Amino acid sequence: MKIMTTVGGSSGALFATLLMGMSKKYNVELSDQKNITTMFAEGVEAMKKRGKADLGEKTMLDVLIPVSKELQKLSDKEDVKHIAEKIKEVAEKGMLSTKNLIATKGRASFLGERAKGHIDPGARSSQLAIEAICNTIINT
């Protein structure tokens, strides 16, 4: 997968893991919100296993896990644009939540207390990707 070989650091491998985890259900109908929600949740779980990380450890999972949980809560009867707006909010909140955490995983874990006051770069890149997808949905 191109993303794994071209994106630097561990982010490439982790984003590739997310996408490969999602693709295990490649033959499902993508117009069904439940299918998309399940695919995303499976991708996030694969990423958690590969990175041996979880919520609250100042990683991209601080964005992706809350987004996955929010998708599971939202009804498939809701307007897709409303869902996209809500997911954007959840992603931003997750990203901002990393600012005052001490990293326990990844390169930032070596910074200890010095990582406090800074948003995790993986969380920011995850938030930006989700925001771009949601904006595409909203503006379509």
Keywords for this entry:
140 residues; mainly alpha; Serine Threonine Protein Phosphatase 5, Tetratricopeptide repeat; 6 helices; globular; DhaK_L_YcgS
Q: What's the helix and strand layout?
A:
Layout: H1 2-6, H2 9-23, H3 33-51, H4 61-73, H5 80-97, H6 121-138
Helix pairs in contact: 2-3, 3-4, 4-5, 4-6, 5-6
Description:
63% of the residues lie in helices and 0% in strands. It is mostly helical. The protein has a single domain, classed as DhaL domain (Serine Threonine Protein Phosphatase 5, Tetratricopeptide repeat). Helix 2 packs across helix 3.
Q: Which CATH first-tier class would you pick?
A: Mainly Alpha
| Secondary-structure content class | mainly alpha
Query: How big a fraction of the residues is strand?
Result: under 5%
What is the general shape? globular
Strand-and-helix sequence, N→C? Answer: HHHHHH
Q: What's the architecture, going by CATH?
A: Alpha Horseshoe
pLDDT averaged residue by residue = 89
Number of domains: 1
Distance between the termini: 28 Å
Total beta strands: 0
What do we call the CATH homologous superfamily? DhaL domain
CATH topology: Serine Threonine Protein Phosphatase 5, Tetratricopeptide repeat
Number of helical segments?
A: 6
Low-confidence stretches: none
What's the story with the biggest beta sheet? none
Radius of gyration: 15 Å
Helix fraction, binned, reads 55-70%
